Amino acid sequence: MKGDLFSSEHMVQPASAPGMTVENAKCLRYVVNGEMLARQGAMIAYRGGLRFERKGQGVGGMLKRAVTGEGLPLMAVRGQGEAWFAHEAQNCFIVEVEPGDEFTVNGRNVLCFDASLSYRIATVKGSGIAGGGLFNSVFTGHGRLGLVCEGNPLVIPVSPQYPVYVDTDAVVGWSAGLATSLHRSQSLGSMLRGGSGEAVQLTLQGEGYVVVRPSEATPQKPQQH
What we know:
- Helix content is 7%, strand content 51%.
- By secondary structure, the protein is mainly β.
């Protein structure tokens, strides 16, 4: 077999390191020796002795999921082998979470992560009921977190002198230590006249970083039956 398809650009090479690595811009590889976690349906290929099991969230987790809509449906991958993960050809990135770190991320952007990381679903402080359900997953511990993003993300530094205002549909996540609140950039009169369509933003203040994607939320795809 010959042709561009079989060039080194596309051909999978032997794994160079255990755990999570970037295979290419749209895909992550995970060399499993024990257990790791991934979003359900994200596995696109694997080899070796691996088992894929839906991971339950318990009664409390199910209730929280029903109330928040956050979801983050997960599967546990156990055994020895390697697997590749992707989601709708979105760009893939890896975040190194170290002890003492806390990274808040939108569940829609989570692809896979080390079992050594723990997460909880939390309400974005300051959003209240008017926030339209601003809930995110907060990751702590020590390990790697694989993320997906539509397009190349922007990482914007936040400082006490320069707070950052982001579209709630575009935000991917932010680092620990940032205070959040909602900011209304339009007057009531402007909103009644139609406004700009950018009425409310999420404000981040403090010292750290916020990650945003170069697009707002896309319409939900019709479910297939």
